[in-house]
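Re: Re: token formats

Sure, here are both.
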Amino acid sequence: MIDLPGSDASARARAALDGDDTPLGSRTRWAAELLTAPEAPRDDDLSEHFVPVFLARHPQGFAATLEQWRGLGPFTVTEYQPVAHKSWVTLEGPSGTRSTLSLTLDSTGLIRVLHLGPEVVTPAVHGWDDLEAALEQPGVTWSALVTREEGGTTETLYAREADRPMPNGSSYKLYLMRALADAVASGSVRWDDEVTVTPALRSLPTGDMQELPDGARVSVRETAYKMIAMSDNTAADLIQDLLGRDAVERAVVEGGHSDPALLRPFLSSHEVFEIGWGAPGLRAEWVAADEDGRRRLLDRIAGPMTVRGSDLGATVHQLGLDWHMSAWDVARVLGALADDGTRDTSGAVEDILTAYPGVPVDAARWPRVVFKGGSCPGVMMFCWLLQDPDGVRYTLVLQQRADDQKLIGDGQFLRGMGGRVIGSGLLSGTSR
């Protein structure tokens, strides 16, 4: 597949990639081979591997992009990390420069995201001072919280500005999941009920449900799975429409948010996109309005979205166009959801919450992992609830915000730091 001279690390990475017969492994192996085949494939040869929207984003043909990537080789695989529907392959070029090939599968098993970029290096973490040193960056505000819970008692292992409300992007879907779990428990919603995709409820990626045709019907269970495991924005908006805004706002209170008014009215992703990057007058009106005025504004803009993904640019979290939660708020709703998963006799809540751990995790050390990430321009956050074999729970929350999106990046760094903390032994006090 790929020339792998030399190191044991390269041999192990090659063996891991070659030996992964899952759909993710097969697609990743094929994608890596694109960079080393004798000739770049034609776009006609690519269509069976990618979702149509991916190739449509490359009007000059994706083969042209591949040829640019191939020019950086020949490559050696030095690391392979598969996690649920995502994978990362570290490649080393002839000069020793390392790059990361990242891939995300669509729910259909086709490639939705394929990107080659410089490797993002995350420093080792042996103590909390190492975490602080890594996250302390000019122009970036951050917060962090690490807790241990056993026998109903919560111990704070580390906290940095954990009471400060921060924009969190898609972590708002945790409250939607809580409201849905309550509705199912009460019998007002069933997992096999269906939601219907309509133009007024179609949002922008992440996810793939926005590409379903008008009138498509999807079960509540599948929609909730996509909302959490794939952070599907249209799925979240469909769940919110099913439950009603009032029910989600009650879930915010019941989930222990320290200042529920920050999430009233509770915005859908569609509404954030439309106000944040639509007509400029909408942003000014949102900032000037009180809660009642904001609710009237939301009623007025209901309808098909006018904003496209290419319209997203300047950060808008400073205008209150995001979902603001402190690290403690995130930890509380994570814990409440974990309890929901334990109580739900159908197993659906647990299956949905634990479908995607966010980073490679030692399953023997952490048999239960609940994860959620969130991002918007200038916003990045990742949170984990990890439970050890003895039932002791640990929560890790990392949050970043900046006025300049370039300072935040695509999340690989913050996600990697979370992985470093989880793998360090700091949670259980065994760090070397």
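Second one below.
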Amino acid sequence: MKRSLFFAFFLSLFLIASACSNSEQTESEGNEGTEGTTETEEAPTEPIKIGVLASQTGGLEAYGEQTLRGFELGLEYATEGTMEVAGRKIEYIIEDTETKPEVAVQKATKLLEEDEVDFLVGSSSSGDTLAVLPLAEEYEKIMIVEPAAADSVTGSEFNPYIFRTARNSSQDAVAGAAAIAGEGVKIATFAPDYSFGWDGVAAFKEAAEKLGAEIIHEEYAPQDATDFTSNIQKIIDAKPDYLFVVWAGANSPWNQIADMKVQEKGIKISTGAPDIAALATMEPLVGMEGFTVYYHDLPQNDMNTWLVEEHKKRFNGDVPDLFTPGGMTAAIAIVEALKKTEGEADADTLIETMEGMSFDTPKGTMTFRPEDHQALQSLYAIKLEKKDGVPYPVPVLIRELSPEETAPPIRN
């Protein structure tokens, strides 16, 4: 009887222990299941939103259009037509800065506060861009700068949320100086009187003087000027060997430089070859040696071939222009970064991912330099020549300038 009671007592303890064990296991399994569901729910699935700032009106309207066309093509190329990355749809919102810094700030604030974008891209004007940079830091959002070129963007005004796919003024300067500067060469410069012009001249002067040239005169004109007679006369009076022009916008000085017969007075002209519309005004400068950011038949790679062919299909046979590949590159940089972060758009994660990131573009491989987030890239030493069937002087390649060769000084 005692043995039976003992056995019953032992069996009851065993069953209680077993039940507790099963209960704990069930509870544990239930918790694991709940955690798994939470992780799935927390995985980012909402759309990636990109706010694009561009000059759709104003003096740089043509640049804005080129950038926007390239950006849209770039998203399509980078996502293979899905407009999706890491399971997240991509949406973009375009805002016109009107080429006015105060408007750029208003539009960027709207994109950040009302539209709650994950990225900013832009802008066509260095003045617009510099006004917006502090907002990227304030709202902790990555801003891809394209096509603004002022050195100060990744220099004195740099903050860690800024990444630039556009080349900067120092990269232009290295290319421009390589074309004309040398020991004892006397050079005058001409540029618009705002950040793009100032930075461009300062960078060119530094590069040219390293090669032994002397900058004997610097001339600046208002950004919206249309009459350059007095500026050009001062340059003629200075009697340089070369006039190096830094310019952007539709109100270019080329016609007046030709009308005032600057070259006939023994002054050679050099500049960065501009977009196609401006090339059409440079007939008097055939034979000029300088550089260019891009011309559609210079880069020889599959991505550029795709860009040229697709652009012709969609835009009535027009070829991509000076800043079209830049817009495409900005889109590719965003998609490539999000692929690496598996769709995570947290700025700190993106900064860590994008610093030192290399990626393919229509101009070849670019790399975001970790120190200042400037994209190192190829530029092109060119000569303007006439070409049968083309109604404007064509930039003909002298040689490609490698990303290492055009790497600008770190100025931040």
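The radius of gyration is 28 Å. Residues 2-42 form the longest helix (41 residues).
- S.
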